[in-house]
Amino acid sequence: MATDDRTARWNRNWDKKSATYDREVGFFDRHLFGDSRQWVCSQSTGDVLEVAIGTGLNLEFYPNDVTLTGIDRSQKMLDLARARAADLGHPATLPQADAHHLPFDDASFDTVVRTFGLCAIPDHTQALTEMTRVLRPGGKLILVDHIRSSAAPVRAVQRFLELFTIPLGGEHFLRRPLEHLRAATDLAIDHRERFTLGLVKRVVAHKTATT
C-alpha cells in the first residue's frame, strides 16, 4: 500500500509539472545538455520506441521515415505530446504505460530511446531490462541522461537535492546506468561519452543476436 501511495504521489507530481516542464527543461537543454536530443534522434531508425516521452520534446528531431511509439506514465504529459505531434505533422502512437512493464512483445523495435528520464523511473534497472527485451537482435539502445557527477563538489549538491526530489517526484541524480548495461549479457556497448562536469552521459548499445 505504501508503494502504491508513493507511486500515485509521484504521478500527480509529474502531471502537475507538465505545465512548466518545457520551460524548465529548456534551460538545461541550453546550458547542460547541448545537442543531446538531436544526437539521439538522428541515430534512430525503423520502428522506434521512446520510453518516458514526456511532452514530446524530441519529436521535431526524429527522421521522417521512422515509425514512432512513445510511452509515459503521465497522462497530462502525453496530452501535450499528442498536441505537439499533431502540430509537427509527425505521426506517433502515444499510449500511457509503465516503463517497468512495457506492453509490447519481445523484439518489437529496431531502436529504443530514452532521454533524461531514467532519473525519474523508480527501478531504472528493471526499465533498462524491459527496453532490452523489446529490442530486436541488432537493434540499438540509445540513452542520454544526467548521472552521478565525476566532480566531488557537484556530487555533494546532487546528494542534497535528492533529499527533496526523491520524496517529491522520485527523481534521482546519483544513478549510474552504464553499470547495468555493462553487466547485461545481451547488450554490447558501441559508444559512450561523458561531459559537463561528468553530469551527462551518452550511450549507444546494440542487442546481440540470440541463438
TrEMBL record:
<dbReference type="InterPro" id="IPR052356">
    <property type="entry name" value="Thiol_S-MT"/>
</dbReference>
<keyword id="KW-0489">Methyltransferase</keyword>
<dbReference type="GO" id="GO:0032259">
    <property type="term" value="P:methylation"/>
</dbReference>
<dbReference type="InterPro" id="IPR013216">
    <property type="entry name" value="Methyltransf_11"/>
</dbReference>
<keyword id="KW-0808">Transferase</keyword>
<dbReference type="Pfam" id="PF08241">
    <property type="entry name" value="Methyltransf_11"/>
</dbReference>
<dbReference type="GO" id="GO:0008168">
    <property type="term" value="F:methyltransferase activity"/>
</dbReference>
<feature type="domain" description="Methyltransferase type 11">
    <location>
        <begin position="49"/>
        <end position="143"/>
    </location>
</feature>
<protein>
    <submittedName>
        <fullName>Methyltransferase domain-containing protein</fullName>
    </submittedName>
</protein>
<dbReference type="InterPro" id="IPR029063">
    <property type="entry name" value="SAM-dependent_MTases_sf"/>
</dbReference>
